[in-house]
């Protein structure tokens, strides 16, 4: 293995390892956010059940049937508003999860680009062959010197 290839590989390793680490960390954070989301939504729904139970007791103490009329409407409204609150909590955590995963993806992609750039730079600096254009050029400007474009193509 030539010195240029070895330097290119070593130059790419650092950034890529850092990117993989950031990616893995973002996935762990997203998993943690998912668990926190589940716990927060569960807690909110339990609080809603307690609130609705307290409402039923208050209606029953006042001699009102909690299964009909206005008390039933109050409980239905409470159930809907509490479920909406639980879903807002869930949505906020989902957005945070998405953002965390996206940051990890960007870090990984950026590190791959940085590693490739470092590898190419090291390879070129140490005299590796074929260090021309990424599009396969690799030649020199001498190939295009002198004459018109038509003359180079064998036309007058």
Which short descriptors sum up this protein?
3 helices
What features would you describe in this structure?
The chain has one domain (3-128). Helix content is 77%, strand content 0%. The protein has three helices and no strands. Mean pLDDT is 80; it is low at 135-147.
* Percent range for β-strand residues: under 5%
User: Over all CA atoms, what is the radius of gyration?
Assistant: 33 Å
Number of helical stretches of at least 4 residues: 3
> Could you state the oligomeric state of the chains shown?
single chain
User: Class by helix and strand content?
Assistant: mainly alpha
Helix and strand element order: HHH
Secondary-structure map:
Layout: H1 3-61, H2 69-125, H3 149-152
Helix pairs in contact: 1-2
Short characterization:
Helices cover 77% and strands 0% of the residues. It has helices spanning 3-61, 69-125, 149-152.
């Amino acid at each position: 293995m030539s010195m240029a290839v070895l330097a290119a590989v070593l130059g790419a390793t650092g950034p890529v390892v850092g990117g993989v680490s950031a990616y893995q960390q973002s996935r762990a954070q997203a998993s943690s956010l998912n668990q926190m989301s589940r716990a927060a939504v569960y807690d909110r729904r339990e609080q809603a059940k307690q609130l609705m139970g307290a409402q039923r007791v208050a209606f029953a103490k006042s001699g009102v049937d909690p299964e009909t009329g206005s008390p039933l409407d109050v409980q239905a409204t409470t159930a809907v508003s509490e479920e909406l609150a639980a879903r807002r909590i869930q949505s906020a955590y989902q957005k945070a999860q998405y953002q965390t995963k996206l940051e990890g993806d960007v870090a990984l992609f950026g590190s791959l680009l940085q590693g490739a750039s470092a590898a190419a730079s090291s390879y070129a600096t140490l005299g590796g062959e074929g260090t021309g254009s990424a599009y396969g050029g690799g030649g020199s400007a001498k190939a295009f010197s002198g004459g018109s474009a038509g003359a180079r193509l064998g036309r007058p």
